[in-house]
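FAQ: What does a ligand-bound record look like?

Like this one, built around zinc ion:
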Amino acid sequence: MVKKSKKAVHKKAKKAIAKGSELSCNECGLRVAVVSDCDCVDPCDVMCCGEPMSLAC
Ligand SMILES: [Zn+2]
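The answer part, i.e. the structure of the complex:
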């Protein structure tokens, strides 16, 4: 068995952007499909129209 020595220290303040999610822009209505998981250490926002895009369901 492989022992994992690294423990995740960062608590995710925001939900990571997961594969299969859709982001939408509240300004222009652009929708973006997420085809791979976001692996950012810090929360990241996808920007459109100068605003962070929000998750669409
Ligand atoms: Zn936009």
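Follow-up question: can I read anything off the structure? Yes, for example: Residues 19-35+46-57 form one domain.
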